[in-house]
Amino acid sequence: MLKPESRRLVLMAQVWTIPVLILVSTGIGLAAxxxxxxxxxxxxxxxxxxxxxxxxxxxxxxVRILVHASRGNGS
Length: 75
Description:
mainly alpha
């Protein structure tokens, strides 16, 4: 079992990953969409759809992290 101070640090680290998670997942979606648009000459449809999908995935995972953190499961 973690000490209360260590648990708080783990919790803070989990919550601080949220902005990075959202940015990275959105960026991956944008890069994949851009590549597919260039490959299949379908601009801007893949870029838009995969960027939104990446954003949604990042938000979904962020909500899961916040729910996990709010339940007091700091590890």
